[in-house]
Design goal:
The chain has 458 residues and is α/β, with parallel strands linked by helices. Helix content is 40%, strand content 15%. A hairpin with an 8-residue loop joins strand 12 and strand 13 (316-320). It binds pyridoxal-5'-phosphate.
């Protein structure tokens, strides 16, 4: 029998996160006055211990024991050699799936939710407020809050709230409260509803609502929590790639190609950043963030300063952005419907260390169904985008007759996304591609903002 699963013992769990800010140069976030923000300006939104991580340039940051203790409920996660998929594709490539779907909420997201809930708890915070796209992040934070005895309030993008009704119940089971966004509970939500009563919503709008609720709590014991994009989130996710390195060492392999789907960028960053470090130090690796053609942030949008949310509450971040007011088409990969991307990922694109790709909705589901029928796990619609890219690479390896090693982040399972699979089987899913005019239209939004420098880290 072939060895299909490569496991680590609990003792082999990484004890430090890898911080990519130690190895690249970045444009700083800017405040309303156009000047770099100070850590204190973020204090109403995040606890100071997380703000310190956000701006830290220490390469290795210790993972607290109390965080490892909760992570060990499902970590280390298995690395799966996808031999059945390889056979069906007839490829000489070796395909490895890092299976992040085994966590309680079913995705990689609790890796940072647990860390964030812990740091907020230590700082004396009682309640966390957040947004969620497909519901994975809201579920992850509700789970993490339940572990540390914090309250949790979630604003869920309207279209996903309607497409995935059970997510709300998942959050409720862990003690979280979930509202569809835009809601009439905030100024930001009411302003959007007045203009567009039937809007499907967006992550940008839901972020505005969550920040507004967090900063308007007069007790001072409520903070906001973000599930992707920011430096400290990417940091917490690197446990994925650090585990994977140890697992591949055990079987004497090393990746030629690394693939992850990218919404805000956290699962991609989590798997790839420890390998980006190797690439900076001379390793030859192709590294692909994969996004939907319906929301082509890295592949089509310009590198600009833009807000992370619709109501412009966040600082200006230097990133590829379709515009903070951009409302992406209602694709089923709700976690990939974000107008921007992690600033560190944008910088790595500028440094030519990673190469973005895009995939249509139907190609993504074709790939997801093939993987489900070979490897067994039903992937999340987001994950399907990465898997479509894996299959492309495996077919290329076959044409070239090359024994490539392909590594992918299996970011989540799709057992709460079956409505979208049902639509796929009923031929009701369509592709959305954004025209260049639509992209130009949204580009105008940030004409008045400062322009980021095109920095090269090396
Ligand atoms: C949220 C989510 C994503 C997208 O978010 P990133 O921050 O880009 O990782 C991808 N896959 C799954 C399963 C998700 O839940």
């Amino acid at each position: 029998m072939k060895q299909r699963t490569i496991n680590l013992t609990p003792e082999e769990l990484p004890r430090e996160w890898y911080n990519i800010l130690a190895d690249i140069k970045m444009n700083p976030p800017l405040g309303p006055d156009g000047k770099p923000i100070s850590p204190e300006m973020l204090a109403p939104v995040f606890p100071m211990n997380l703000i310190e991580q956000e701006v830290s340039s220490e390469r290795w940051i210790k993972i607290p024991e109390e965080v490892l203790d909760v992570l060990s409920i499902w970590r280390p996660t298995p690395l799966i050699r996808a031999t059945r998929l390889e056979e069906v594709l007839g490829t000489p490539a070796r395909i490895y799936l890092k299976n992040e779907s085994v966590s309680p909420p079913g995705s990689h997201k609790p890796n940072t939710a647990v860390a964030q809930a812990y740091y907020n708890k230590v700082f004396g915070i009682k309640k966390l407020v957040t947004e969620t796209g497909a519901g994975q992040w809201g579920s992850a934070l509700a789970f993490a809050c339940s572990q540390y005895g914090l309250d949790c309030e979630v604003y869920m993008v309207r279209v996903s709230f309607d497409q995935k009704p059970h997510r709300k119940t998942v959050m409720q089971t862990w003690g979280g409260v979930c509202y569809p966004s835009p809601s009439d509970r905030t100024n930001a939500g009411r302003a959007v509803l007045e203009k567009y009563p039937d809007t499907p919503g967006s992550l940008g709008i839901a972020i505005s609502e969550a920040i507004e609720i967090a900063v308007s709590d007069t007790t001072g014991k409520t903070r906001y929590s973000l599930g992707s994009v920011l430096n400290h989130v990417m940091l917490h996710q690197t446990i994925i790639g650090l585990e994977t390195k140890k697992q591949l060492e055990k079987v004497g392999d090393y990746p030629d190609v690394i693939i992850g789907c990218a919404g805000g960028g956290s699962n991609f960053a989590g798997l790839s950043y420890p390998f980006v470090y190797d690439k900076i130090h001379g390793k030859q690796i192709e590294i692909y963030p994969v996004e939907p053609t319906a929301c082509p942030t890295l592949t089509k949008a310009p590198y600009v300063y833009d807000h992370g949310d619709e109501a412009k509450y966040t600082p200006l971040l230097a990133m590829h952005s379709l515009g903070h007011a951009f409302i992406p088409p209602p694709i089923h990969a709700g976690g990939l419907r974000y107008h921007g991307i992690a600033p560190t990922i944008s910088q790595l694109v500028n440094d030519n260390l990673i190469t973005p790709k895009s995939i249509t909705q139907l190609d993504a589901f074709d790939a997801g169904v093939l993987v489900a029928r070979t490897e067994g796990i039903i992937p999340a619609p987001e994950t399907n985008h990465a898997l479509a890219c894996v299959i492309d690479e495996a077919r290329k390896a076959k044409e070239e007759g090359k024994e490539k090693v392909i590594l992918v982040n299996f970011s989540g399972h799709g057992l709460l996304d079956l409505g979208s699979y049902e639509k796929y089987f009923n031929h009701e899913l369509t592709n959305f591609a954004l025209s260049d005019e639509e992209i130009l239209k949204s580009e105008k939004i940030y004409e008045t903002f400062p322009k980021p420098e095109l920095i090269r880290s090396f």
